[in-house]
Amino acid sequence: KQEVTQIPAALSVPEGENLVLNCSFTDSAIYNLQWFRQDPGKGLTSLLLIQSSQREQTSGRLNASLDKSSGRSTLYIAASQPGDSATYLCAVVLYNFNKFYFGSGTKLNVKP
Amino acid sequence: NAGVTQTPKFQVLKTGQSMTLQCAQDMNHEYMSWYRQDPGMGLRLIHYSVGAGITDQGEVPNGYNVSRSTTEDFPLRLLSAAPSQTSVYFCASSSGVSEAFFGQGTRLTVV
User: Which percentage of chain B shows pLDDT scores above 90?
Assistant: First the structure.
């Protein structure tokens, strides 16, 4: 069974810092990996999707990397802002059946 | 651009009652799925569908039924609500190779 772990569970940083969120998974036979953002009481918003053949994806201040062989992904947030405060979730998909396995998330607080 | 629409947003049920959570998508996606989100447990897959007429069980299917008569709709039925089903429920859709889109969630309380 695929297990997805996110470290740290919570993170509090001052505005302007660069930060890294970690995601690890036990089964390297993944189809793709997706990072989501969830605001309190809201749904999930997709941030970045990395296909299994890719090593990284970038969108604005966000960069996600994928190392399938070691079962790891990182989400790098540059120059953090208070508006980045949210819970960040990573999810892996095995094969193409679109069954997502989620980590428990990292709750980020960026202080002004 | 509606995306994935879930109704209702909030619901309170008494133990033993039944209800249907609605999910509709307007992106012509093949894949749809239902998750529940509980504190400390993350999101767990309840049921999923890879196309109209095809459904399968996920990680926590007990107490829930689904059907997929059209590409657009994927309702989740609670047969006899129990307090253990108090949770936030999310519906998702995807084309398979692209990113997944999630609805805004249904907060269900069973008393």
Answer: 87
